[in-house]
Amino acid sequence: MAISLPLVFDAPRRGMPPRHLADLDSDERKAAVQELGLPKFRADQLARQYYGRLQSDPALMTDLPADVREKVGQTLFPPLLSVVRNIACDEGDTRKTLWKAHDGTLLESVLMRYPDRNTLCISSQAGCGMACPFCATGQAGLTRNLSTAEIVDQVRAAAASLRDGEVHGGPGRLSNIVFMGMGEPLANFGRVLKAVRRITSPSPDGLGISQRSVTVSTVGLAPAIRKLADEDLSVRLAVSLHTPDDELRDTLVPVNNRWSVAEVLDAARYYADKSGRRVSIEYALIRDVNDQGWRADMLGKKLRKALGPLVHVNLIPLNPTPGSEWDASPKPVQDEFVRRVQAQGVTCTVRDTRGQEIAAACGQLAAEG
What we know:
By secondary structure, this protein is an alpha/beta fold.
């Protein structure tokens, strides 16, 4: 049975937090400080504190007059996210954080240290409305969109933790951002786009992380992929395809009832042509569901035809959720799947799995509360 899903780029602001500095662009920051009776130069001063020094508490901003810090804090730095708990695994190289927003909403981020990079997986929504049956977040449903500032502050907080040596391995620098946490980023399009610009703009307008080190993931909202392409960014697009055939994808990724595999791959090609970046095809390998050899052959053929050399398949061993009927494919099946995709002339690698003992599949920690 086809499932009808509304095309929502920006849901209503139900439960959204009050305005924060990270919600504002340069002109809006200047207007905001002038509303407080402060000179315009304070706008960049505050932004340099937040984005450059990773400071979110005006009480500790010593270059700000003491008599205005409280007012600035109440107006431009309302409390956004508080840590419920951090859980570490992989000998401390993976840390999952459960956050609580101002309205009690729970969301997650995961910080992963590798020898050559430090990657943060962030959430763009609390919950998710895409209803993919093998995903803990999808089964929980959508609570609400996150604000631009709630997205950005996950990044600021992780960058500060790394800088200050609060994460196993000593002080470091945050280098990569992936929008692969809770939610469908392109269903919160406007705020995610602003967050990408805050994350990648140089100080005082942002955190200065390279666009080429940012990945935006989607289950395949084809019009939004094209809309993102027209923003002329150089972020990487990741498409959660999970199967090459419409019949199974209608079940695994219900939004496929709205936009077919062919439509999604056509939009992905448009993005690749506009950005000059290879598209990453995410494929969660599920035992006896989508791991058949003929599906590997079909996947390789469709991707070669649609995207040519501008594609890379990222095979993901499923991280099962407690009580789920879904399980990861055996390694010999996984290896054969990789071989058959590569035989079609398409690059295919297996993602390094992290956090299996700490409920690192998106949404698991929030579901546990």
